[in-house]
Amino acid sequence: MNIKYPKSAALFEQAQRVIPGGVNSPVRAFRGVGGIPLFIQSAKGATITDADGRTYIDYVGSWGPMILGHAHYEVIAAIQQAATRGTSYGAPTELEIQLAELVIDAFPSIEKLRLTSSGTEATMSALRVARGFTGRPKIVKFEGCYHGHGDSLLVRAGSGVATLGLPDSPGVLAEVAQNTITVPFNDQTALEQVFDQVGDQIAAVIIEPVVGNMGCVPPAEGYLQSVRRITQKHGAVLIFDEVMTGFRVSFGGAQQLYGIIPDLTCLGKIIGGGLPVGAFGGRREIMDVVAPVGPVYQAGTLSGNPLAVTAGITTLKLLKSLNPYASLKLTTQQLVTSLSEELTRAGIVTVSNQVGSMFTCFFTSEPVSNWATATQSNRQVYGRFFHLMLEHGVYLAPSQFEAAFVSIAHNEEIIGQTISAAQKAAKALSQV
Fold this sequence. Notes:
Blueprint: H1 6-18, E1 40-44, E2 47-50, E3 55-58, H2 73-83, H3 94-106, E4 112-116, H4 119-134, E5 138-142, E6 155-156, E7 163-164, E8 166-167, H5 174-177, E9 180-183, H6 188-198, E10 202-207, H7 223-234, E11 237-241, H8 253-258, E12 264-268, E13 278-282, H9 284-287, H10 306-322, H11 325-345, E14 351-355, E15 358-362, H12 371-374, H13 379-391, E16 394-395, E17 404-405, H14 412-430
Parallel strand pairs: 3-16, 5-9, 5-10, 10-11, 11-12
Antiparallel strand pairs: 1-2, 2-3, 4-13, 6-8, 7-9, 12-13, 14-15, 15-17
């Protein structure tokens, strides 16, 4: 039994008897940092409270959706009201139209939108649509970019400029994975070489325009523009996976921030206000191949769920009204700068990346621009820092390779408490 977190320890032991690994998503198991996962019983604003009654400043934010903070009163009230009318209909609703119109208004690249129940569903569907639209078999993804657990996306990155995919998980068929080509992020030459070799077979390039699943890694200047130019030249569909960045780095996502118009966009997280949701959309001519208009089949029993859609509508309306993005960026900059200063003062080498309200502190001395450089970060040091911050009341991502998130609920007092915790954690870390 873990003395520090006895109730979480007991729950984890119980969970492992009925749930594989005791968790319903692998990163939650704390394997990346060691120890036992905290079981959360409630959340409010910028904080979460565990089963042992300890409260923490939260920088996970349910892995990105909680940009308004946890349990925002307007979102909760809207969900409660919607629930009185029923939780699921399996039929069209006016709410679906309202959410689609809000998204389309924010993303000029999206002319039509199809709702799903998760980001994984959105990316899987977008790739199927791209293949159906182009008649081509292959896709290109980037090392360290995560697009959900669809078979064609679970591919191990190999050596060399470009690697034909090998299954990265048992159960993924080699003949499925072999149609996935993996190239390094932020490497224009590698992408050009792939298209020079097999460009007429490539249906789509799928990319996180700001990577969040190797930690926060921004695109190099001009890189997204080059990806757009290459895909247009070869007639491949450019898919922006903005499940994480949509309505996060700006109201119109990374494509608004960097001035890029993709062909298809995948969304999730924030557009559900903390409830399960996903979506994909884009150019009308591409989206019109989706059934029942076109031949490419996609469906979902709970897609457009009225509770999730209501939460999403409320969240997006609040974000449009509040327009918190400049303030969130400044708050995050203040936090990241202070964290770096405290760690440096303690003799701990770090490099920080930030885009808007996303950030990561890497425990390495070299700039992090792709998967190869991200993996140079000292995961053992990060694990010790994670647990020290936890002891001082701050909950970071239980993995070096996950972005952290700031919400509008992270006010000056909360940021100050975080910096104070970092000072204590850095001092303790330097003495190890």
